[in-house]
Amino acid sequence: MKNSKKVLVVFFSRTGENYAVGNIEKGNTHIIAEIIAKETGGKLFRIETVKPYPDEYKACVEIAKAEKENNARPEVKDDVKVEDYDVIFIGYPNWWGDMPMAVYTFIEKHNWTGKTVVPFCTHEGSGLSGTERKLKDACKGATVSEGLAIKGTIAQNSQAQARQSVKKWLESILQGK
Fold first, then answer.
1. CATH number of 133's domain
2. Grouped pLDDT means (10 residues each) for the chain, 177 residues
């Protein structure tokens, strides 16, 4: 993948107080995105909301849950032209069995026809929770590959283990093509 395809690693990640890992300076999904970018030679792009989520976990949960219930599309900063890439990894924390609404804001700005989309998420027990199917629906015209779900506690506290999981997953999806 490092030589033949243009790879983009897009991710949404949150710092501050997080479930099961305490107060963090680099988000769980951010850590996994960096590993994927290093292994694939991909360019990193972070999805960030114009209005940041609160650092306090409970306050963030309340806002994020209301956004999901209202199918909100929070405004995001910056953008990257996914149309210039062949393979786009999309990373996110699993919030109530779905991607954060800001990820949908980003997705809906782009034409996904002919792209390969590869999901990855961080979680604390819920895995991908059907988000691969949601990505297939949202990224119209794209081929969605098998995703990776990795616990946030592993991303934060066992980065060597996280790196091994990412490498093994990348090898398996590359062999499947």
1. 3.40.50.360
2. 82 94 95 98 98 95 95 97 97 94 98 98 94 96 97 97 97 77
